[in-house]
Design a protein that fits this description.
Blueprint (H helix, E strand, L loop, with lengths): L3 E2 L2 H8 L9 H13 L7 E5 L5 H7 L5 E6 L2 H11 L4 E4 L12 E7 L8 H11 E12 L1 H6 L5 E4 L2 E4 L7 H10 L2 E7 L5 H9 L3 H7 L5 E8 L17 E4 L2 E3 L5 E3 L1 E5 L2 E6 L14 E4 L3 E5 L1 E6 L17 H11 L1 H8 L3 H13 L3 E6 L15 E2 L4 E5 L6 H6 L7 E5 L5 H12 L7 E5 L5 H10 L2 E4 L1 H8 L5 H6 L3 E3 L11 H12 L3 H7 L2 H6 L17 E5 L5 H6 L8 E4 L2 E6 H6 L2 H4 L3 E5 L2 E5 L3 H12 L3 E3 L2 E4 L5
Parallel strand pairs: 1-8, 2-3, 2-5, 3-4, 5-6, 9-15, 11-16, 12-17, 18-19, 19-20, 21-22, 22-23, 23-24, 24-25
Antiparallel strand pairs: 6-10, 7-8, 9-10, 11-14, 12-13, 14-15, 17-26, 26-27, 27-28, 28-30, 29-30, 29-32, 31-32
Helix pairs in contact: 2-8, 8-9
């Protein structure tokens, strides 16, 4: 049947009748990727240009923007959007090239599948420049022009058994970038995703599997992230704190738990500067990229966040015989029955033990650690292997810290306050939550650790107070022969994962992930969030930890890409699969194969450690750390239960 040609305004008014009912693989693909790229819109003024029936407005409205405006030229599309959204969005009839929006009032713009219907890119770029504030983000997405040409894709829809075609223009990606750069925007991200299994289902449902087969190896859409330039006066920075620019090319990178795509990541001043699927299309840096690492076949993930550890105990074995009723009972017993073991390990200088704690995390892909003990100079030094949180208040527990209330009162209100609570299986442990509430220390900045004894009433209380919980399941299993339930993890609004120390845990954060997946039944997407973005949110991290996106701190890890989603990859990750760790743009760990690929400038300062037979090059004084630990403990050193040695004596 021949498609009927109609004017754009007529077409969109007609399309509005069926727009939400007809599955579209292009929109599904865009939703999967763009939803992971958007920043937190809370408190921002947001504009959806060409909003249609409100597909993106609905998602954005649920994240508390300060204002939300949708503009479209189709009255019928806007009528449906207004019906869905009510007062949650300000719906305005208008042209994309003459927006009914005041100058410099917008922080973030989405223009989804809009550019193909515009004749003049320059007018559109000028209009977005007019309405945005300096530093604003603009996200542009559309059908990929190259694939549209090669596959002869048309803009059409079907209504009342008639296929109607919409006139469209093809603007090539480089042309779009150049136009916006001329109007003062800089490119932050360019990705060109392909159809995958999720979209294949839509093709099958519509009887168009041949179209999927013809395009499966071609980019189906593009997504551009641009930022309106803002003049910044560079801040003086110690040269030792600023690694040289770095380029990671050829690997896929994780946008979130479900989406990944091949791109080149440019790193400058320890932060991700740009992400581009086209080598050479990165944002210009203040100096040429002097170092690069080619990583085809690898998947880049955000560095993991360990929300609870005691770093100085990394070389200790499990202590205690259990099961116990509560943590106090365990603590008393081990000091009576394991005094010799404790004394021997404590002879190792504390700074050395802290370094081993950092290495235990580093080799498992952890770049950020919340250390639940007093901070020392070593932990905050520039050369420490992992980033240790310093901006929080803490107490040990209600039973063991008489200064708990004092510490809480003297923690700034914008920082988290962390303490052990409900660590046990008896009535005393269960009562602690309610005692803490009477002391008025449960609120939206409170983070409890363990919470094994929480009942449904206590869970409801934590949600009401908007408090968070860190679970360390293998530690609970060792001490109490009981672990957090799936009900607890699903019921609480904010749950993240910690490793605790090897005194009670199975090994490292990856062992906690494995236990939570296999024994508790936590789904892989939740596990991914519990050690990345959600953990960053709970701990109030402010440098972009837990995500790979422009502007974020360059903390990331590389593992072999097995064709799994990022969440599936993390859920099944083992320490021997972590082959590269970068902290703030500096290589901290490399496997032997990747060490061989590094430029000589990146190898400087790395020393070899053998962990359970696996060679890892670490930015650490390995030989000295081994020598000092062996003076007290002997040659058989175990790091989280894993044997460590030097290559020369392995």
């Amino acid at each position: 049947m021949n498609a009927a040609a109609v004017s754009p305004s007529e077409a969109f008014d007609t399309w509005a009748q069926v727009y939400d009912e007809q599955p579209n693989p292009l929109l599904l693909l865009e939703q999967r990727f763009l939803s992971q790229m958007l920043p937190d819109v809370g408190g921002l003024d947001v504009l959806d240009v060409g909003c249609g029936t409100g597909r993106w407005l609905q998602l954005l409205a649920s994240h508390a923007p300060r204002s939300l405006i949708g503009v479209d030229a189709s009255a019928q599309m806007l009528h449906r959007a207004a019906t869905k959204l009510g007062p949650a969005a300000d719906i305005r009839l208008g042209s994309c090239t003459a927006l009914p929006v005041r100058d410099a009032t917008v922080d973030l713009i989405i223009a989804s599948f809009v550019l193909s219907y515009l004749e003049n890119l320059d007018t559109f770029a000028r209009e977005l420049h007019r309405v945005t504030r300096p530093g604003s983000n603009v996200f542009l997405s559309d059908m990929h022009p190259d694939t549209a040409i090669s596959c002869n894709w048309k803009r059409s829809f079907r209504v009342n058994a008639t296929e109607e075609q919409i006139p469209a223009n093809r603007h090539f990606i480089q042309q779009i970038i150049a136009t916006f750069q001329a109007w003062g925007f800089e490119l932050l991200t360019l990705i060109e995703p392909h159809f995958e299994s999720q979209e294949k289902k839509v093709f099958e449902q519509n009887g168009r599997i041949e179209s999927y087969e013809a395009s499966v190896d071609l980019p189906a859409i593009y997504i551009l992230q641009l930022r309106k330039k803002v003049t910044v006066v560079p801040r003086a920075q110690n040269q030792t704190e600023r690694p040289e620019p770095l380029c990671l090319s050829g690997a896929s990178y994780a946008l979130g738990s479900e989406a990944s795509t091949v791109a080149t990541i440019a790193i400058e001043r320890g932060h991700i500067r740009s992400i581009s699927s086209r080598p050479g299309q990165q944002v210009e840096t203040s100096s040429s990229l002097s170092d690069s690492i080619d990583l085809p076949g690898y998947l880049l993930l955000p560095g993991l966040i360990n929300a609870h550890d005691h770093l100085e105990f990394a070389l200790f074995p499990n202590l205690g015989a259990g099961p116990y009723q509560n943590s106090t009972e365990w603590a008393k017993e081990i000091h009576r029955t394991c005094a010799a073991v404790i004394a021997r390990h404590r002879k190792v200088p504390k700074p050395v033990r802290l370094w081993w704690g950092a290495i235990r995390n580093l080799v498992s892909g952890v770049t950020t650690v919340c250390h639940h003990n007093p901070l020392t100079r070593e932990l905050l030094a520039n050369d420490f292997p992992v980033r240790v949180l310093s901006r929080f208040g803490w107490a040990h527990s209600l039973a063991m810290d008489p200064d708990l209330l004092h510490n809480y009162d003297h923690t700034p209100p914008n920082l988290p306050f962390i303490l052990h609570a409900a660590e046990g299986v008896d009535a005393k442990s269960a009562q602690e939550i309610f005692d803490l509430d009477r002391m008025q220390v449960l609120d939206d900045r409170t983070i409890l650790v363990h919470g094994l004894a929480l009942n449904r009433k206590a869970m409801a209380l934590l949600n009401q107070r908007r408090s968070a919980l860190v679970v360390c399941p293998t530690s609970n299993q060792f001490l109490f022969k009981s672990a957090p339930s799936s009900t607890l993890i699903k019921t609480l609004n904010s749950v993240v994962l910690g490793s605790d120390s090897p005194i009670t845990s199975a090994g490292d954060l990856l062992d906690e992930i494995k236990f939570a997946r296999n024994e508790i039944g936590v789904d892989v997407d939740s596990l991914y969030e519990m050690v990345t973005a959600r953990s960053a949110s709970v701990l109030r991290l402010r440098s972009g930890e837990g995500r790979l996106r422009p502007g974020a701190i360059a903390d990331l890890i590389a593992v072999h890409d097995k064709g799994l989603t990022p969440a599936q990859t993390v859920a099944h990750l083992t320490f021997d699969q972590v082959e590269l760790v970068i902290l703030g743009g500096r290589v901290q760990l490399a496997s032997a194969p990747l060490y061989a690929r590094l430029p000589d400038s990146l190898k400087a300062g790395l020393q070899l450690l053998v962990i359970e037979g696996h060679e890892r090059w670490l930015r650490a004084p390995v030989e000295d750390l081994l020598a000092q630990a062996r003076k007290s403990i002997g040659r058989d050193l175990r790091l989280g239960g894993k044997r460590v040695d030097h290559a020369g004596s392995a």
